[in-house]
């Protein structure tokens, strides 16, 4: 009898439609591994695919605002001001955690790496060595990122640029001797670049960290928990890992 009651309860829960919930978000511009509006439905960006996987996991949930493409600093302001409800995907930092919340399920892992020209014999295996290298020419890093702030805190002289693609071109032209960035992004951009043969990615990982779903500070707890549960299911069934592997 207990078995039949459990089965009946499960069937009834399936019959009840999920409560509708629309959450505001945006796309990050100049970060095509995460958001690539021109790539088509087969590979629209890792974070877009994770977002749609969450919607598929929870049919009553949908995200609005993906037609907006804004730079990272604008994303941060929108989150801090509560003008968007959620954003896929952001790294953590103490400054950021004071302005909004992060859900506990990691979306994917990145490594901090350095790219140099192949004709440059100097190896860089630590931030101290990178700081020494930067005395001649500042290290390139994407503007406004957590990576830029960490380099500055380590006394590395930096030159902030709009995108990693722009930085690769500058590096190839000799305007800088090193580029510091995320492995998953740089691997793709180097493969797509016309100057790929003249560039090499270092083997050292200066840091490893995870990207998360960020939500506005005052998002209701029930909505945050609903998102968390959808992400936990995607983590358990391997969807998050499979999507990350697709973009590596």
Instruction: List low-pLDDT spans.
Output: 8-16
Number of E-type strands: 12
Helix content: 25-40%
**For the record, what is the CATH homologous superfamily label of the largest domain?**
Periplasmic binding protein-like II
What is the percentage of strand-forming residues?
15-25%
Task: Please provide a written account of the structure.
By secondary structure, the protein is α/β, with parallel strands linked by helices. It has 2 domains: 22-108 and 211-246, D-Maltodextrin-Binding Protein, domain 2 (3-Layer(aba) Sandwich), CATH 3.40.190; 110-208, 3-Layer(aba) Sandwich (D-Maltodextrin-Binding Protein, domain 2). The chain has 10 helices and 12 strands. The strands form 4 sheets. Strands 5, 6, 7, 10, 11 and 12 form a 6-stranded antiparallel β-sheet that branches. Helix 6 (146-153) links the parallel strand 8 and strand 9. Helix 2 (46-57) packs across helix 9 (221-236) and helix 2 packs antiparallel against helix 10 (239-246). The longest helix has 16 residues, at 221-236. The N and C termini lie far apart (50 Å).
